[in-house]
Automatic annotation (TrEMBL):
PROSITE patterns: CS. It comes from Ranatra chinensis. It comes from the Eukaryota. This is Protein SHQ1 homolog. PANTHER family: PROTEIN SHQ1 HOMOLOG. Pfam families: SHQ1, SHQ1-like_CS. Residues 1-89 form the CS domain. Signal peptide: none annotated. Belongs to the SHQ1 family.
Length: 417
């Protein structure tokens, strides 16, 4: 059976469901509404949706079919008029039923709507993520040896060792070495590949392209006297892609959740750099740029604090791309903060674009399997409060200004980062 493309909208009293099913047997179409579940069947299509609230059929109401568009339109009444149904555009989240907390083992949570609240044993005053001390670093270094992928949940995947993986991964010997060893090896490699002449040439004599790139205004930002955010909405193509990705549950402890969130910043920074450099028109180098700038994707890096994330992003931005300029790096940091501040939907849109780029760039499709697909699904269940905390933390950590002076003086000091 095929899962059709669908779209949900709401008013104060009703929910409208639009289903695109051009091959449907209209005469045998059936819609069943039961509490929070809506089931549609019309061969060869089958759809089961689990809503965040209860609905009922409207007496005397019938579905409509637009033969020109191949679309069904149904309307259902909210059992509680005025109730706002959240995340109706999070396609993957609607495809599977929500699990109750009683099904979750102690100290492990399904990261859904209430991932950082009293159900986690925490209060709003306990901002564990804001703390900068590396209280869990030793445990991470000892237990994460040989692990990689989303939230460091994977290990021992034989297909990762294929020869073609060396094209996209700087780290050698995936199944060996602790996170500390990977970090040391990465920093040594960055130190060797930093080119003082290239950096100083771009810094002292910025060209016309750089000036144009710095002046570029991304589509998620409107140019006005004050910064005006454009609300992120999924296109029909993006909704279709989310449907294809499906849904799954992620059992992450707090350390794994922290790893996932910090690595997300690293990936979004690399996306923001590519978007600004191409001014929104991706090139054949875009997949390479995102892959190379992200230490998560090129070194299977796991972070323990936001300062390490920002330092690593800044280092790689002035070592590997064609354009290596400090002001550009700072501008990309601002872009990254804006994207984080816009919340889950904007981040998912960015990740879906990365997913498409990697699918078209063999063998980077493997990075989708290891990271991007999981992020696209997990973020649909992640709370907006968590993402806003992440954005706030990103803006607070600003102790990387020394890198500019460091790299400018490196040619005389001859030190290694």
């Amino acid at each position: 059976m095929l899962t059709p493309i669908f779209e949900l909208t709401q008013t104060e009293k009703s929910i409208s469901l639009k289903i695109k099913a051009p091959l449907a047997n209209v005469g045998k179409a059936e819609l069943v509404v039961e509490d929070d579940m809506v089931l549609f069947h019309s061969s060869p299509y089958y759809l089961r949706i689990h809503l965040p609230g209860c609905v009922r059929e409207i007496e005397g109401s019938v579905g409509k079919y637009d033969s020109d568009r191949g679309e069904f339109n149904f309307e259902m009444a909210k059992c509680t008029p005025g109730q706002h149904f959240e995340d109706l555009d999070m396609i993957g989240k609607l495809l599977l039923p929500q699990k109750s907390h009683a099904e979750i083992k102690p100290k492990i949570e399904v990261l859904g709507e209430d991932q950082i609240n009293v159900d986690d044993g925490m209060t709003d005053d306990e901002d564990w993520f804001i703390e900068q001390e590396e209280m869990c670093e030793e445990n991470l270094m000892l237990t994460a040896s040989g692990r990689y992928g989303f939230a460091n949940k994977l290990c021992g995947l034989n297909w990762v060792d294929r020869d073609e993986f060396s094209e996209i991964l700087d780290l050698k010997g995936v199944d060996f070495g602790s996170i500390r060893e990977r970090t040391r090896e990465r920093r040594e490699n960055e130190g060797k590949e930093f080119c003082e002449d290239h950096y100083l040439a771009d810094f002292m004599e910025p060209d016309d392209l750089l000036r144009e790139v710095l002046a570029y205004v991304p589509p998620w930002q409107a140019e006005s006297e004050f910064l005006c955010f454009v609300s992120a909405k999924f296109t029909s193509e993006e909704r279709e892609e989310l449907k294809k990705l499906g849904n799954r549950d992620y059992l992450l402890d707090k350390t794994e959740q922290k790893i996932a969130l910090l690595s997300l910043v690293d990936i979004i920074f690399s996306y923001a750099y590519n978007h600004r450099m191409t001014m929104g028109d991706n090139s054949v180098e875009s997949a390479w740029t995102i892959n190379k700038l992200s230490a998560t994707l090129s070194w299977f890096q796991s972070y323990t604090d936001m300062k390490d994330v920002k330092v690593t992003c800044a280092r790689r931005a002035i070592i590997y791309p064609l354009c290596r300029h400090w002001e550009l790096t700072q501008t990309v940091f601002k872009d990254t903060h804006t994207l984080l501040s816009l919340g889950r939907r904007q981040l998912i849109k960015c990740l879906l674009e990365i997913h498409s780029l990697f699918n078209a760039s063999h063998p980077r499709y493997m990075l989708n399997r290891l990271y991007i697909t999981d992020y696209c699904i997990w973020l649909q269940k992640c709370s907006e409060k968590t993402i806003q905390r992440l954005a706030d933390l990103f803006s607070k950590v600003t102790s990387i200004f020394h890198l500019k002076l460091y790299y400018l003086s490196r040619s005389t000091e001859k030190t290694r980062p």
